[in-house]
Amino acid sequence: MTTLYPALITEALATVRYPGTGKSIIEMDMLEDDIRINGDSVSFTIIFDKPTDPFKASLLKSAEAAIKLRAPEARVTINTATRKAAPAAPAKAPVLPGVRNIVAISSGKGGVGKSTVAANLAVALAAEGYSVGLLDADIFGPSVPKMFGLEGEQLYMHEVNGQNLIIPAEAYGVKVLSIGFLIDPSSAAVWRGAMASNALKQLIEQADWGELDYFLIDMPPGTSDIHLTLVQTLGLTGTVVVTTPQQVALADARKGIAMFRDAKINVPVLGLVDNMAWFTPEKHPDERYFLFGREGAVDELAAEFDVPVLARIPLVAAVGEHSDSGRPIVLEPTVSAQAFIHLAHELTDAVAKRNETLPPTEKVHTK
Ligand code: ADP
Predict the structure, then answer these.
(1) Which percentage of the chain shows pLDDT scores above 90?
(2) I need a surface site. Which of 76, 93, 112, 172 has the fewest CB within 10 A?
């Protein structure tokens, strides 16, 4: 029997087009946020603009057929609703009530080591005794499963207070979910827009994250729909921006900081991480070669925005080798581990300072 999970349903519904628009019912925001799965039964609501929508019956049929194509045994119940003129948002239960601090690990540019930093930081925090979750939201290249040795992990759900929730995988004391668990990483590029945003929301709202001191989110590089979805779904404690000292990376990091600082987004930038700051040969751990950019280039960017440089991580070949083998380097006694553990200390200090001086970040309300 095919196991039902929320992304399978949205994936199926994303193939159902509203006649005459060329858009799917997902793209037209017609799926209510209420997918319920119980064994082989699934129910959800499709919202129509008018109660007399001429395509209602045929769309409901197509929606059921699209799900049965993927899960033939599924018992499908589709409710319908009519879109209301936007009323004042009803007071909803807070998202992730047990999570104390939510930190987005971001970067302006891909390939600067954002995921590497997110993974090693998560493991370092867990080793210090904090309860930690890591959500890999990098739709362009979800690499967290590989770095934690969790590739091909099968996800399970269980019931919490009458709701079926995804159980995060766990490795090295960190609860892990990745958009890569829901999709084949090679097809990640087509997962843009509404589908990716829906999948991300499900991994946040319909997963059993429980009580966490730190919930880290490995963001896609740059700025994207995913960033907007995230700040609309959660009030972020802050973001850490990872960059290398190269000019191109710094220029993109500047844009990333500006986005989080934008008055409409308003997410505190907790600090920068200077990754691949210098090259240190394994046999000569005391030597430093500045291969990328100049020494101090990241400090200049930090000074420009009045944010700290939380850590400098040397370029060491073993960092990548450990990531590839599914065991983050922070677990081995190395100079790299020292740098990531230092980052963990600096981050906890920066978060504590932020929480003392600033009110909780508001979710972004748009539309
Ligand atoms: P991003 O998430 O920014 O795209 P990744 O974390 O995937 O970047 O890193 C890109 C590549 O650089 C990977 O092969 C990774 O192993 C390697 N890498 C990252 N940081 C370091 C480092 N400090 N030393 C050596 N290799 C690194």
Answers:
(1) 66
(2) 93
